[in-house]
Predict the 3D structure of the following.
Amino acid sequence: MRENLADTARELDESVRDVRGYEYAVINDHALFPFKYADRPRPLERARLAANASPTRRRMLLSHGPEPQDGLFPLGDDRTTYEELHETYEALGASTKLVCLFFAADPENGIHVIHWGDAHLEPDRTFT
């Protein structure tokens, strides 16, 4: 899905930004961040970032998602440093906001459900 969004952005003469070898569509300073949370219909409340999710995905959510209530960057996770967040922040651009596209899909039936909007990554890997 990420590749299709990037291709469509190019067709519309919109920006595509490379973040560590992965291209993301950026439309009106909003990076489209597809996130498959299930392979069958499930409530969005069940969405959770996998424990083995790439550090880049985690950093994108932390550096470009909505600010948490307690401060700008929660650095309690020892795998995330300010320098790593800044690197991802710069790759997409300082003013870019992240728009999450949460979806449940499988190869045989396609997309079951899709939701979009802001999502803050919580310490337990859920989203608010």
Remarks:
- Residues 2-117 form one domain.
